[in-house]
Amino acid sequence: MKAVYYEEFKGKVEVKEVPNPTVSPDSVIIKVEATGLCRSDWHGWMGHDPDIVLPHVPGHELAGTIAEVGSDIKNFQVGDRITVPFVSGCGCCPECQTGNQQVCDNQFQPGFTAWGSFAELVEIKYADINLVHLPDEIDFVTAASLGCRFITSFRAVIDQGKVAAGQWVAVHGCGGVGLSAINIASGAGTNVIAVDIDDEKLQLAQKLGANILINAKETNNVPAEIIKVTGRGAHLSIDALGSQETCFNSISCLRKRGKHVQVGLTTADHKHPKVPMDKVVAHEIEILGSHGMQAFRYDAVFEMIKASKVHPELMLGKTISLEEAPEALMNMNKFENLGVTVINIFK
Question: What global pTM score does this model have?
Answer without folding.
Answer: 0.90
